[in-house]
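> call design_seq(struct)
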């Protein structure tokens, strides 16, 4: 069974930075596509960024150029570096792990608030 634990959320000012981390517990980390999603109050959960086992990344248009996703196979972690934060980035951010055989795991989420 896979467990995902997010950390690094908090309060940031507009234009500031935060770094989110997700610790993956379980086996076969390298076989999962890892992603970050976010959900603001009253809105659906949307993909922010994902990274596959080969390091290919995918970003939502709203964060491309500001956010960077990375994964560390040795530490079995995935991180999201968020720069140039905007109030619209405020949401609960969730770590996700998807496998080719249909597994889909979620973390509990971490709150990010961007406000002056």
């Amino acid at each position: 069974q896979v467990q995902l634990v997010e950390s690094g959320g908090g309060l940031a000012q507009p234009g500031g930075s935060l770094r989110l981390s997700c610790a993956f517990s379980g086996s076969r980390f390298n076989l999962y596509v890892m992603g970050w999603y976010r959900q603001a109050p009253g809105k659906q959960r949307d993909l922010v960024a994902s990274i596959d086992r080969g390091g290919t990344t995918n970003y939502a248009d709203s964060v491309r150029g500001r956010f960077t996703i990375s994964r560390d196979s040795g530490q079995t972690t995935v991180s999201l570096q968020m720069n140039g934060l905007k109030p619209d980035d405020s949401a609960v951010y969730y770590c996700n792990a998807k496998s080719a055989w249909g597994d889909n795991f979620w973390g509990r989420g971490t709150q990010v608030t961007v406000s002056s």
